[in-house]
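Hi W.,

Here's what went into the run:
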Amino acid sequence: MRYRLPAGGRIDRSKPLSFHFDGKKYSGFAGDTLASALIANGAHLVGRSFKYHRPRGIMSAGADEPNALVGVGSEEARYTPNLRATQIELYNGLVAESQNRWPSLSLDFSGANDLFSRFLPAGFYYKTFMWPASAWKKLYEPMIRRAAGLGRAPEAADADRYTQVYGHCDVLVVGAGPAGLAAALAAARSGVKVFVCDEQDQMGGSLLSEREATIDGQGAADWLAQTIRELKSRTNVVLLRRTTAFGWYPHNFLGLCERVTDHLGLAITKQPRERMWQVRAREVVLATGAIERPLVFPDNDRPGIMMAEAARTYLNRYGVLPGSRAVVFTACDSAYRAALELKSAGVEIAAIADVRSAPNGRWMERARAAGIDVRPSTVIAGTYGRLRISHADLARISGGTMGHPETFACDLLLMSAGFTPSVHLFSQSRGKLVYDEDLKAYLPGTSVERERSVGACRGVFDLGASLADGFAGGLSAAKALGGTAAAEHKFSVFAQSLGRDGFIGAPPSGGKSRRTRAWVDFQNDVTAKDIELATREGFRSIEHVKRYTTTGMATDQGKTSNMNALGIVSQTLALPASQVGLTTFRPPYTPTTFGAFAGQSRGELFDPVRKTSIHEWARENGAVFEDVSLWKRAHYFPRPGEDMHAAVRRECKATRESVGIFDATTLGKIEVVGKDAAEFMNRMYTNAWTKLEPGRLRYGVMLREDGFVMDDGVVGRMSPDRFHVTTTTGGAARVLALMEDYLQTEWSDLDVWLTSTTEQWAVIAVQGPNARKVLEPLVHGIDISQQAMPHMSVQEGHICGVPTRLFRVSFTGELGFEVNVPMGYGRGVWEAIYAAGREFGITPYGTETMHVLRAEKGYIIVGQETDGTVTPDDVGLAWAIGKAKKDFVGKRSLARPAMSRSDRKQLVGLLTVDPNIVLEEGAQVVADPSEPVPMTMIGHVTSSYWSVALDRSIALALVQGGRARIGSRLSVPIPSGPVTVEVVQPIFYDPEGKRLDG
Amino acid sequence: MVEATIVRVNSLAAVSRDSASSPQVSLAVLPDAAKLVFRGRPSSIGAAGEAFGVELPQTANRFREAAGRKAYWLGPDEWLLEAIGVDSSELFSTMSEKLASHSCSLVDVSHRSDSMAIRGPMSEYVLNHGCPLDLSERAFPVGMCTRTILGKSPIVLSRTEQEVFHLDVWRSFSPYVWSFLDEARQEFLHDQSARSPT
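Here's what came out:
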């Protein structure tokens, strides 16, 4: 660590660490970032730029870093690309690699891009790769994507754990620099519940790099330690370090990402790698600070060119010298402070070039007194050095012309154009920004949410003012909550003011030659010329300039570039900066992992998997399951050696010939109870219910208000004021919500109430000619004979000793029962029925067989034969409409002429002329297959199966004017050619319904 | 008739089998109970309370408990009535008779849900991994109940003691809810010194 000072900084020298970067071993100390440790080892070159593959170094010391993006992780399952080296805490064994280079960082073949840079200006991909059009997809786009880019996505599944947790507090303070800490103190002392979050591993912000200032008679470090102690000691305060407030969502709801274990290197606990906090704060204090702006000058992107404050941070916080001989280029006073502190640590300051014509004040005087060569009205005209800066040209500007450049040798160039307040979160909260001409910055204006900004993020830069502003903000938040605020506190601060000077845009450089490039957006490789080109090509809105040049569109969202881009547009168009406008800030503030957004929702917890109480029996008996909404349903029960078709044929045959058993538990169920229950049913369903006797069932159809079929199901009248309603599996929640909506908003006069009973009842369908014989010995208190219990009736009693609602109903066309028992008894009753059915060869069947059997009978499935544009009449259910009823949901819509046109799509059966062809569901139906493509499509196949009972294929279809076409032939084009089909009645098996009675 | 040998199976039986206990946060399956949903006109609320044996709370989001029976306020016209160790059919019949002249609805939902408890100083924090509500005692005191969500599942949440919450969960969602909470409490199972950040 050649550049590590023997003492100083906040690192722990008793804890040396070793790490690898690009395969080379380095050492550092606990408390280092990857960036500070690399600089301590003299390594500034850490990456290649996005487009031109220019060698790039570490430019900043924080979240704003545009260049030093690295991939971290020794194993694929824990690899993360595009991390900012300035924010990676060092740990023992850390493995990092540079990105976007081949074969190596110092020798990158794609660096040739840089030589062709004048062919790759802003928007080049709109211009250069236009012809031939077909080459875009196959050649140009893959090529550009390969050449340009950042890190690679890991291939292995993420091995870490991520969690999400909701948090609630009275005051959330974002940022724990001096202003944030002062705000936290004020709020905490007021007794309200306070969350303080900060993205760094230590709280303190700028105080962590402070040397001279004193607060209330203490050095900054001591005041900081004492303040943290006080906050920690208060039970009403939660301090969240390593936690980035990345997004603001409506009503003071903020997303915070806490990096819990990354700095530990290995998962030693079951702590999550990251914890996503979703915080609802009654009041928010934004203390997000400010970001130092680079200066835009020719070749300002070489390794060794760094922000002045970053250099100061490396020196004071990490005890690292970022170079040995520095040139400083500045437009404000703070760089003088950096120069003085570096000089006192042994860095030679070759010169300070100051854009300002007459810099004055304490800082300038101190620099001169220290013997530093200060040059007003001076700019950097160019730099040299391939993998690290070696020289810089300084030139004096007078009267708008640039003098002869003077070359200075250096291995470090510090730049500062002043500070840009971080208004990202404020802007995300829809707060209005106001341009401050004096500061050349956008500042928070009118708030929309319950929040206030304090300190540097609203342009209050000096330490004393910032502390006072923070404390006042904390008090105002506490007062806004209606409580008693803590006592005022006057901070007594000694710190030399840094003034408010700054510069946006590009200082004059004289370098107008074609080859001179001055970077504005370092991460997306956008130069001042690109922006000038965009304005020449007619782009005036900053939003258009942004998209055309991609400035500000990199992963850093233009933290260092936006204001300079705006300044250049303003200079070029001769418009005031305030009229150029600012681009929109969007979450996340810094890139956030997918893991944090997924949280616990992965693997088995990705979604609830709903299982019936019979599920385990089905699993043990070899069922293959299918997903139906969140439910798992047994699809079929293959025996060894059977595929789905073989299993389904066997299941169909057994059910038609003897008896099958089927788990219908997932059907939605709603208990409708009250003296107006029948009236309510009349209004919700198309059918008439008044005359349905208790003990009888009826098939009900429900429409939406637009008259189209929404849901269907069998309904049992249990007593005059009680209906047992069933719905489709997927429609249960929707139907209940719609019913409740009508009751609460339209028909609150009806005495009727709804209760979901979907999960109260397990439903076991026993279907087939032997169904009665199977159930007879098991039931108690119910006469299930044909005379006592005809088709479509229901009785209450017991089965196998548990209560049941026994339905005589059939969705197969065979004699059938549906046994409803309380859910917890489901499996027990199922097993008892299965045992009793053994002598009849009872066969469990799944949803596929159920679908085939009902299709043979032409029974529709809502969502298969219907698609939200189908009326009851379209699917042959006109008989289910109570025509004498005054009203029901959808009735008026059915009266529209369009709903009764004869050319509407109607449900018909299709029989392929070749009985062995099974049509594809969804296939289109046409009248004339010789028509050129696109043919006139007159319908589509909704259901198609092989029917064992008929020993041929069958299909249902919706066809325009279908009923009038019965007896005619149509065609169904499929990939192998058109298939001729005969249009028939949509019922294929037992049209007289004789089998319903066994 | 076949002998009544069929036993009720709790939906949490399998998932809860080897649940590690922790002084900081533990999970437990609650006993099966008779559960009825009562809904009705205001005039019937008093009679329902009398019939059940617990006066129905009319303060929003509160439950009332007496002699092992609980009445949870779920909505302006809806209560969940819960009685442990009672035959639900009998409770349903007796209450139905007493409410016969009233304008209301009573439905047996004893098998619709199973219940679990989460207890320990970390239960609030663990619940907040899936429940977006403020569960501090200030906002969610003992005696409070509400329909809410836990992750992607609807639940009825109630606070019975300072560090004990009960969750009533529809059967098909209950293994998910249990597993979700069990996953969220992992950081406390393996590290007894772990503390809630709040």
